[in-house]
TrEMBL record:
The keyword Signal applies. It holds the Pfam family PBP_like_2. Gene3D superfamilies: Periplasmic binding protein-like II. Residues 37-273 form the PBP domain. Keywords: Signal. This is Phosphate ABC transporter substrate-binding protein. InterPro entries: PBP_domain (IPR024370), Phosphate_ABC_transporter (IPR050811). It comes from the Bacteria.
Length: 305
């Protein structure tokens, strides 16, 4: 039975490989991987690590494959991607026009697959009475205007969260006052849980899938509902992320520049397929495709006495 289930799970990967291989030359000989076996490395925006680790763990348990994850800030990951440190990258955005032009000049056509919807969340210490925040307040604060915000805590100056909010505010970099940078999302969580009055900026995935040792710090936090342009306060719940009514929802992508039928293709098919989307659903994030539901139908009705 176990072999049968494993075979069924493999079918979408095989079909994708056949479709994408039509009209292409055979994969180069000597590659260390195929779509379901071998070894490869993947650069990962470190703010997305919890969900990516889950996907890799299940993928490796089903196939004879070894994937090494290289977590870095978004900016560092993209630089390493352009240098060829790895041919696969997972980001909370697609490549921009300059990055696409770079790979086009190298005669490489990236294969981009969306697989989940995450969110940037704002958190405060439980001692605070605040449960709401206006996105306009955050943007004004980042632009240098003084308001009720005492300070923002980010994971890393080069992170995707910083880039995302700077783009919303229309600024090139963070202001020099009132903004704190640590190193990781876990450090943001710990810092805010121990310091009342500050607002932490974290990837939602770090709150829905914490490491056991982080739960005590998360228990000291409250996640703020955010008021967007529509004037309604919305919490970053799974449903609100899925419908994009939460104003800071963001799509996650795996971008593959391997140029042959390797693990980049197989893993992208896996996380965008039935099993991968179920993992997303169970994580508290939103899948980009609703996985099917198994319904058991009984042939006979039991009469209870």
């Amino acid at each position: 039975m176990k072999n049968k289930v494993k075979y069924i799970a493999l079918i979408p990967v095989i079909i994708l490989a056949i479709v994408l291989s039509c009209g292409k030359k055979d994969s180069k000989e000597g590659n260390p991987d195929s779509i379901i076996s071998g070894t490869t490395s993947i650069l990962v925006d470190e703010s997305l690590m919890p969900i990516v680790e889950d996907q890799v763990s299940v993928f490796q348990s089903q196939y004879d494959a070894e994937i090494k994850l290289l977590p870095k800030s978004e900016k560092e990951a993209v630089i390493d991607f352009s240098k060829g440190v790895a041919d696969i990258i997972i980001l909370s955005r697609d490549l921009n026009n300059d990055e696409k032009a770079f790979f086009k000049n190298k005669k490489i056509k990236p294969k981009v697959t969306s697989f989940a919807i995450d969110a940037v969340a704002f958190v405060k210490n439980n001692k605070s009475n605040d449960t709401l925040i206006e996105l306009k307040q955050i943007i004004d604060f980042l632009k240098g205007s003084k308001n009720d915000i005492k300070g923002l805590v980010f994971d890393n100056p080069n992170s995707s969260s910083v880039r995302y909010l700077c783009e919303l505010a229309g600024i090139e970099s963070l202001p020099s006052e009132g903004v704190f940078s640590v190193k990781t999302n876990n450090e943001v969580i710990k810092f805010v849980s121990e310091n009342n009055g500050l607002i932490g900026v974290v990837g939602m995935n770090w709150l829905t899938q914490p490491k056991p040792e982080m739960q005590k710090y998360i228990d000291e936090l409250k996640v703020l509902s955010v008021k967007g342009v529509d004037g309604v306060y919305v919490s970053p719940s799974q449903d609100n992320i899925a419908t994009r009514t939460y104003p800071l929802a963001r799509v996650l992508y795996i971008i593959n520049c391997q140029g042959y039928d390797g693990l980049g293709m197989g893993f992208a098919s896996f996380i965008a397929g039935e099993i991968g989307q179920r993992i997303i659903l169970q994580s508290g994030l939103a899948p980009v495709r609703e996985p099917s539901r198994n319904i058991k139908i009984r042939n006979q009705i039991e009469n209870k006495k």
